Amino acid sequence: MISSGSTLEVSDNSGAKIAQCIQQSGRSWGIGDTITVAIKKAATKGKVAAGSVQKAVITETKKQLQRKDGSVVKFHKNACVLVNNNGQPIGTRVLGFATHELRARQMLKILSLASRVL
Fold this sequence. Notes:
Elements: E1 7-10, E2 16-24, E3 34-42, E4 53-60, E5 65-66, E6 72-73, E7 79-83, E8 94-98, H1 101-104, H2 108-113, E9 114-117
Parallel strand pairs: 1-7, 8-9
Antiparallel strand pairs: 1-2, 2-3, 3-4, 4-7, 5-6
């Protein structure tokens, strides 16, 4: 799970590379949750600048995720996708994995942009 102060890799092409979680919107932070992040590293000509505060959706966590059918999914990194206030992704590509749990949270745009869906 993600806690306040955790660093995440940004897995889209918005220009941000590393983000740090600074605030939650809810109690548990797992895949599909929306959090507030501070951008720590960013490309110079990206859509977001280093030091800015953005909203992000968690797409990958190191903590294992137990599905209803008994299977377990876990990743080797914590990753997120930056979104605007309406919940639409800022970037035009999602470079990492996306899981079916995003479909239950109505994050269909992220699923359609992702190249790999688990």
